Amino acid sequence: MSTDASHEVRPAVDSTAGRAPRTANEAGQQPGPKDGLRRKGLSERNRPLWMLIPGGVLMIIIIVVPLLLGIYMSILNLDQYTLRKWVSAPIIGAENFVEAVTNSPLLHAVWLSVSYSLLAMVVTLPLGIAAAVATQNAFKGRAVIRSIFLIPYVLPSFVVATVWRTMLQPGGIVDEALSTVGIHVGLWLNGPQTFWTLVLVQIWASWPFIYLLALSGLQSVDHEVHEASALDGALWWNKLRYVIFPYLKGPLALAFLIGMLHHINNFTLPFVLFGVPAPTDVEVLPILTYVTSFQSFRFGLSAAMAFISLVLIAIPLFVYLRAVKLDDADTPGAKK
Amino acid sequence: MSATIAGRRSAPAADVERPGSHRQHEVLRLLPGPLLVIILVFLGALVLIPVLYIFLASVNSDIGVANGEFWPSSVTFDNYSKIWTSVGLATGLTNSVLVAGSTAVVSAALSVSTAFVLVRYSFRGRLSILRGLLALQSVPGTLMVLPVFVLFSSAATYLGIQVIGTQWGLFVTYLTFAMPFSTWVMVTYLRGLPKELEEAAKIDGASNLGVLFRIVLPLSWPGIVVSGIFAFLLGWNDVLFASVMTRPESQTAAVALQIFGASQEGGAIPYYGQMMAAALVCAAPVVILYLIFQRYLVGGLTAGGVK
Question: Most exposed: A79, A302, B7, B257, by fewest CB within 10 Å?
């Protein structure tokens, strides 16, 4: 990576830091085995580590503690009667998990979540790439087009869902428009087709994200590459296929992972689009977890479901974390 | 009405970008002209038709929307005066601005100092913290909402602090969930800053805080704005936590709109016009923020890769 250079040895730094730390803040921090780190030019002395405390305390109280609490709750028999005194709720071990897997719509929800995320991703990828390729070259009004392309992504999910909910009402604008060309689809917001409605709206909302990352990939293509392929007289399709697309692999792999995580975690879109209780064909994981908690009041069961979905999320997340260079890369995961 | 359309059409012409010389253009060309036009028109229509529809429906009558009219047969702006009380947008927007705004400011301030330490100093566990920041961005909200709710209720039961139903509870929650991403944005931003200035300041005897306030802050305001805006959006767009943790008087705009939409089911024709007007009003601040800071935000999006 070219950025490595900026982390190389800086004799000036090391000697200053070594000679005389001048500030008042010189606490007796333990010097660690940091030969490698010093090479990166990171200061080891006189570290204002206390600055990490406010953020760290917040994250421990509001994220880490509830996370552990959630795991603990998944082995409790917790309903609306025992919730108030959850500390003394009876422990029932793995029963919630057994019930979640064998006797609840959880597996169905996992299947829905994964297939809906994948389907939406499969369609948004070509849309995003096409948009990026089309706006890469300068033309009149390109800036405006680029802004327009990002609108669906910028609109809040609850707005997107409210608007599509209105447009997809029976006899609404979408039905009206489709019937002029002789297509009658039937109910969008109820019944078996809801799954496809969710996929379509998700596609509408999230293709600009792929577009953004594809665009950042295109911008890393050197001018010489264009010249070389022009000299070779490459046809546009061959140029795209063999010259340009290889540059997009890294950013798009990243987009795929993050996009999948977003889709699987997306609560707002199905919640506002269909309301609760949601039709069974869109009872994706977040909705099911929410309904089990706040509609059925089976808190322990819901915590077990949440834990299982965390395990599911952990798979793409793990790949993502492995791909990201924590220290050097300017853009995480942009493997070049 | 026609004035709006004309304004929309003429906008591209106002923003002229000089293309390079013809030869240069040919070298960089990726797509044949007709295909390019087809893609742009298709995607442009895909985005603009629903967006235009939001506006048209918001000035239409409810019956018109229910019958699937695109162009309103009668135009009325009444919806925009009704939504403040009927949807509860007056309360909702006030709460949203308060909560999301303070989340943005505090989160930006905390993330700068946290990122500063993470980028410029070495200590045990530094890489684990960086990895944790990335991982925490992906923890699903539905996993957290129940335990956070229980934790906050327990604060009322055992400590006597009422958190549920107050703006404070929402603020603390959003702040915490905004921190990982905001900090990550600042980490990527601060890495790009040259260290020489900070080193020079240290040689001149500046303390750590001095370096942070006099050197890092003035140089990194674009990054600070981005991380603040993302924190703002997190609070503004959230429905999950707000739907569980608010009472009618502390509701955010997102929840107000969601409840209004859900309560229209059954019976008479829903107030579609008011729904669309309210949706537009809720979207406006976000879109305006994005248009103003577009350049920085796009960089931040690709750097962090998270909405």
Answer: B7
Q: What is the pLDDT of residue A44?
A: 67
Contact A23 B66 (CB under 8 A): no
Average pLDDT over every residue of B278-288: 92
For residues B130 and B183, give the distance between their C-alpha atoms in angstroms, rounded to a whole number: 9
Compare A324 and B289 and report the one with higher pLDDT. B289
In this complex, which of A23, A142, A293 lies closest to B207 when CB atoms are compared? A23
Q: What is the ipTM, given to two decimal places? A: 0.84
Kindly report the backbone phi and psi dihedral angles of residue A244, in degrees, each rounded to the nearest multiple of 5, phi listed first: -85, -45
pTM over 0.90: no
Query: Cβ distance A268 to A230 under 8 Å?
Result: no
> CA-to-CA distance for A218 and A240, rounded, in angstroms?
11
Nearest to B70 by CA among B5, B6, B9: B5
Nearest one of B235, B212, B12, B14 to B119, comparing CA atoms: B212
Nearest CA in chain B to A330: B188
pLDDT tens per residue, range A115-129? 999 999 999 999 999
Indicate the domain borders of chain A.
1-47, 99-324
CATH of domain A99-324: 1.10.3720.10
Predicted confidence band at B86 (pLDDT cuts at 50, 70, 90)?
confident
Give the model confidence (pLDDT) of A208-233 as tens digits.
Answer: 999 988 888 888 788 788 888 877 87
CA distance A9 to chain B (A): 12
Amino acid A260 reads M
Q: From the CA of B102, how many Å to the nearest CA of chain A? A: 15
Q: Shortest Cα distance from A53 to chain B (angstroms)?
A: 9
Q: How far apart are CA A304 and CA A96, in angstroms?
A: 6
Are A22 and B51 within 8 A, CB to CB? no
